[in-house]
């Protein structure tokens, strides 16, 4: 089916799935930490999106469900029967944010994030790195460890948020809210505390802006920025500088570089995923994210693991597609899970920023590469 038809069917099925879930007694939608369910993150809810079909430009319906409980299977069968001749149906298990939690916080086995993989077992960059570069360990002073995803500057054309601290020419590090979880002015360390970072010797900046998340409310992005103390950075990725952005398309081949699994490759297995329920710990409970990108690994290992939160996901042509924030237990090839990604347009729009080097330079024309050269003029923001 074409994109228009696929979107129409998806919208119909989303409403149908919610009706069926209520009929079968299956919880649908965000749940707060105060829910009476003993393990709310294991509720057998459905997420529905768009997956690539066999031919270019054609789509099929993606259906994801948590557990093989009778109620969940009954809903999945009914949805699959209405989704066309070949829906992409997968069981994901629990979906949780990938990594950081506050040090010393109370643990809840039903809601906890996937903790960052131990420093000694991580294959990414967990040590102290100067100048800063994408993919290194980074976190709030009271969080464990996540990933520095990208360098960004304020976008003068965006008025979605209030004034960012720092003034003209300020440079920011982009990551997830749950990596930089705090209030403006709180310290940010590289490496993160779980990897040995200590305040003040490893402090590289301060929390500047956080997109709010609230228990019981639907969400679109898990994102935040930190104002950096130094503009001396290395903004390159394995594919070079990433300065352009685009919407993800099912079937896109993608990469990321993260604190835990390093440089990995994958494929966009679905887009526009709604009702993706993600466990956020006792404070926020289970949150429902809409409009998300799903990525499956094309290697022998997972595309991401705990501690990769905040990684930028991009194509081989150096075009950014999204910000990695969560992962499932199963559903991917080789017994690995699936990775969930906030669309980059929603991320930069919510924060009022753009990638360093987008449209040729930052708004002041200043060099932030640490090389003495101006940023490359080749990039254009396609969103």
Automatic annotation (TrEMBL):
<dbReference type="InterPro" id="IPR009003">
    <property type="entry name" value="Peptidase_S1_PA"/>
</dbReference>
<dbReference type="InterPro" id="IPR043504">
    <property type="entry name" value="Peptidase_S1_PA_chymotrypsin"/>
</dbReference>
<feature type="region of interest" description="Disordered">
    <location>
        <begin position="360"/>
        <end position="383"/>
    </location>
</feature>
<protein>
    <recommendedName>
        <fullName>Trypsin-like peptidase</fullName>
    </recommendedName>
</protein>
<feature type="region of interest" description="Disordered">
    <location>
        <begin position="85"/>
        <end position="117"/>
    </location>
</feature>
């Amino acid at each position: 089916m074409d994109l228009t038809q696929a979107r129409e069917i998806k919208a119909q099925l989303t409403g149908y799935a919610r009706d069926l879930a209520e009929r079968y007694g299956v919880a649908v939608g965000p749940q707060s930490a105060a829910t009476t369910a003993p393990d709310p993150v294991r509720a057998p809810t459905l997420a529905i999106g768009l997956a690539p079909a066999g031919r270019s430009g054609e789509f099929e319906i993606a259906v994801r469900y948590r557990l093989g409980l009778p109620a969940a299977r009954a809903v999945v069968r009914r949805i699959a029967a209405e989704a066309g001749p070949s829906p992409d149906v997968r069981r994901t298990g629990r979906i949780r944010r990938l990594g950081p939690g506050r040090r010393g916080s109370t643990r809840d086995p039903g809601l906890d994030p996937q903790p960052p993989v131990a420093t000694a077992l991580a294959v990414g960059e967990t040590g102290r790195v100067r100048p800063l570069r994408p993919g290194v360990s980074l976190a709030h002073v009271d969080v464990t460890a996540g990933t520095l995803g990208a360098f960004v500057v304020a976008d003068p054309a965006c008025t979605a948020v209030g004034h960012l601290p720092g003034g003209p020419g300020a440079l920011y590090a982009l990551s997830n809210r749950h990596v930089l979880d705090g209030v403006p002015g709180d310290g940010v360390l590289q490496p993160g505390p779980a990897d040995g970072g200590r305040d003040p010797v490893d402090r590289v900046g301060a929390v500047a802006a956080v997109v709010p998340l609230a228990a019981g409310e639907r969400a679109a992005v898990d994102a935040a920025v930190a104002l950096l103390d130094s503009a001396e950075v290395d903004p390159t990725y394995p594919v070079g500088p990433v300065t352009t952005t685009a919407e993800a398309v099912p079937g896109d081949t993608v990469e990321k570089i993260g604190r835990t699994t390093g440089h990995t490759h994958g494929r966009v297995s679905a887009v526009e995923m709604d009702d993706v329920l993600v466990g956020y710990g006792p404070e926020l409970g289970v949150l429902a994210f809409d409009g998300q990108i799903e990525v499956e690994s094309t290697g022998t290992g997972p595309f991401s693991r705990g501690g990769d939160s905040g990684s930028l996901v991009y194509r081989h042509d150096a075009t950014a597609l999204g910000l990695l924030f969560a992962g499932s237990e199963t559903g991917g090839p080789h017994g690995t899970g699936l990775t969930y990604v906030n669309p980059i347009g929603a991320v930069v729009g919510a924060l009022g920023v753009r990638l360093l080097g987008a449209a040729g330079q930052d708004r002041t024309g200043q060099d932030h590469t640490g090389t003495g050269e101006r940023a490359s003029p080749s990039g254009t923001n396609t969103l």
